[in-house]
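Hi U.,

Before I forget, here's the chain from the pilot set. I'm dumping it here mostly so it's searchable later in email.
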Amino acid sequence: MDRSVYERMNEQEASHWWFSARREIIRKTIQKLVRLPDNAKILEAGCGTGGNLQMLQELGDLDAFEYDQGARKIAESKTGMSIPFGELPARIPHETNNYDMIGLFDVLEHIEDDLATLSKLSERLNEGGKIFVTVPALPWLWSRHDEQHHHYRRYTRSSLRKTVNDAGLHLKYCFYVNYLLLPVVIGLRAGKALIKSSAPDDTLPPRWLNGALYQVFAAEQYLIGRLGIPVGLSICAVLEKPEDRR
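Structure:
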């Protein structure tokens, strides 16, 4: 990603509505759908500047890795963890460890070979382990935001399912999130395109608006597993290895 994106991420991920509400969605999904065992081993693959690490530490024994050197140093300073270099799909550190859950939180879209990435990570799962993925959705929403973040793609449920299946995994759960604010984002991006604005989408809004947007997005945590919303700004997916029926 552009260096400016990492800088904004570090400054905003504790308070920006999207980061804060996404953490609540991730936590609730883990508790409700992943259902970690006691003393779970967790890996965050591509932890960025570390915004999810404290939350994940509350859920199990955590490892992490990150490609970008500057982001790694920031994440280490926030948590006291040792966070090694890693590059997907070929260079996955913590070689002697296997995991009950591997988290890829808005990471897979940054990797050219997403199929090989899921396949390689699946080799590091304990029996019954899960890969929990969040990705941006709806290719027709592609914008300068995706280019600044060095995305290779946005997904649909169908395209993500095909990648998961081709990687030899089973898509246990797959659902759209951030659907309540979809009309707002469509309007915002259409307006920016009309006036040819290059302002980043992830600028921190005024406090009152930031709080309101957080409340709307975070409210979706109470609907996880209850509604089959057909569209949203992001997709959450829980993947597992198929059962060996021999």
